Amino acid sequence: MKENIVYEKAFEFAINIIKTYKYLYENKEYVLSKQLLKSGTSIGANIKESGQAQSKKDFLSKINIALKEASETEYWLELLIVTKYLNEENHFELLNKCKEIIKLLSSIVKSTKKAIEME
Questions:
Q1: Separation CA 25–CA 23 (nearest Å)
Q2: 21, 37 in Cβ contact below 8 A?
Q3: 10-residue stretch averages of pLDDT, the chain, 119 residues long
Q4: Is 28 exposed, middle or buried (CB count within 10 Å of its CB: 0-12, 13-18, 19+)?
Q5: What is the spatial distance between Cα 16 and Cα 37, in angstroms, rounded to a whole number?
Q6: How far apart are CA 38 and CA 64, in angstroms?
Q7: Cβ neighbour number for residue 5 with a 10 Å cutoff
Q8: Cα separation of 10 and 48, whole Å?
Q9: Fold (topology level) of 5-118
Q10: Any idea what the Cα angle at residue 54 is, between residues 48 and 59, rounded to 5°?
Q11: Would you state the pLDDT for residue 23?
């Protein structure tokens, strides 16, 4: 994939999600950590898949899925921080990175919808 800032950010984010999952798993939190792992790593996978889209509508669908997964990940991170499974001080940056990815994906969705409408 050629240079793609949102993909690069999502890939780096997924690495941090995997590290967070390992930390949670080692501390015997199995259910929420698995949810976080699934949604947090799925973001980049869907962005990667969007690069092979067959049409703008297909691309939009994949990016929308990535956006939904990012929103779900934000939820799990917030829940894990509030319930003190994750330390807010140490995981605030991870939450902010998730919010940044959500903003980028939202922008892509808006511009893609506009492009489709103009066709």
A1: 6
A2: yes
A3: 83 98 96 97 98 96 98 97 91 96 97 94
A4: exposed
A5: 10
A6: 16
A7: 8
A8: 10
A9: de novo design (two linked rop proteins) (1.20.1440)
A10: 50
A11: 96
